[in-house]
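Could you join me in thinking about how sequence relates to backbone shape in a protein? Label the sequence line and the structure token line clearly, so we can match residues to local backbone shapes. Once you have written the record down, we can walk along the chain together.
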Amino acid sequence: MFCDKCYGTRVECRVPWRSAMSGRHSQLRAAALLVCALLGAAAGPPVRADEDGAATEAATPCFGEDSAEVTTRADDAESDEESDSAPFMIVVEHEDGWHCAASLVSLRTVVTSARCARGRSAQLPRELWALAAALLARPVPAPASAPAPAASPPPAPPPALHRAASTADTARRIARIALAGDPRRRGAEDLALDDLAVLELESPFGAGAQARPILMATSRNECEKETTCHAVRAVAGSGPHRARFRVVDATLAAETLCATRVPHWTDIRDRALCLTGDELCAEDRGAGVVCGGKLCGVLSESAPERAVEGEVERGSERGAERAEGGGGCGDAHVVLSVARWRSFLHCAHTLRACGRGDCEKLCSEHRLLNGDATSDIETTATFETEIVTVLAVSNSTSTGTFRRFNF
């Protein structure tokens, strides 16, 4: 007798045909069959009929160097990983469930991309929520076991994150939006030129949110003297986590890189930084970029290698998509420098006077909690960042070293 094949958890044994030629061999055959049965029982439960085909296809020799080992898939191994710590990271949630990233810079103030604040609609939002990333990264407690109902109803759509959150500490309504740029001349092409916004929370986060503001850089040298900067991006939640966040690297690059990748670079070069790195995508726009421990800017654009001429050519479908702010991943990134937007931030954050006096031409203000109708705006950018089904967005998990921001 010899063991021939392993089929999943089943052992198949065969008895040589000569064993059945005599009475003595008949006894040996019976003993051999008994040993086979014992081996089969030790190997595990029998394979069901509906599993037999799949098991046969995976058959491997029972012993030897070619024997297969059961291994854990990489995505399963990562299902319980903790998020990197970034207490300033904020998730902005729109009415339609769309999400984007922002950075907490004071107890009630958030800085992000203007396209994040506007959302995907041609009209400014009527309701916005700010969620602490630390909440979303926390494992969700398993529900208490309960008897299954006789007839299971169809699954309900997932609730909005701010409703699933403990709103007492970790979710806040956004009361005011301040958009950079002169509202009287704002057009489709200005979306990329003035892609900065300040959001004011209705009230500060509670202690349970574990949210802490980050210091903003106040001079260009603070950021430009650094070689490597960092950004926080969301990756798909898995296991007990609603979402997870990863700190990834981006390196300051020469302006010539962005000049060859970004059609409007010459219009913003005096207010932006050019970074390079292969772990950021357009759906990460709005995320804060940290250099030397301070917030240096907001990610506005991620551009792959391409010719500028082909990018803006109206006859090209791909060029038209990019010209309208379409998504994509690239290795050249435009980061709007907060130090170079001091006038806007002074009007929007310090004075809270956008649209009035000396700030009239620098920014516009839109209040969300007084019930007034919001104004229309041409929003051509449609970057897809689904933070918890994705904020992920089909964001792939970063393979970089996990880090912790300490401020």
